[in-house]
Amino acid sequence: HTVFESGAVLKMASNVALTVNTPITWGGTPFRPVVLTARDDPSLGQSITPTNALGGYYAATALRITGGTTNTLALQNLRIAHAQTAISLDGGANHVIRHAQLVNCQRGIVATNAEFSLRNALFHNVLTNFSGSSSTGRVEHLTSDVASWLNNNLGTSLYLTNCILAGVTNLGSTAVTNSVARVSPGDEVTATLVAPD
Fold this sequence. Notes:
Distance between the termini: 44 Å
Structural class: mainly beta
Number of strands: 13
């Protein structure tokens, strides 16, 4: 059993991966999220000596979930920054990620033979938001700000509802999009998003 305490800050070196294949208790709360970030991130937590200049991507995978159906993921109130891959889901269904911030990562969620829901998330400067293979993603209330790809190879089962895509160059395959606004960086969003009947 793996426990992530409320307010925990995990700082990761380059090319490491945190792999969890046991049940998870996730303690993130609105004012005390669980944070996974770069070893040299000075914005929170204790400094690690020697301190280097923050730059590039650190963790190969900040949080890798394995174990398929025995390890259904339920995360809330988390922030992952400066990772090559923020979250990797290897198998399983009914994974739910809520109230998440992914910042300055190469890849956001990489899912392989998995089914997940993402609700209320901000992806900023995540170059590829979703990738993987043979997976289904249900995404509600995502703001993606600056990305090369929304979906690159995840498959055609990416469902978007009430999302804002700002500065996303390539959408890739999406199965259904409901109330999605696509804007260029610096544009002001003035339209009201209304779900279809």
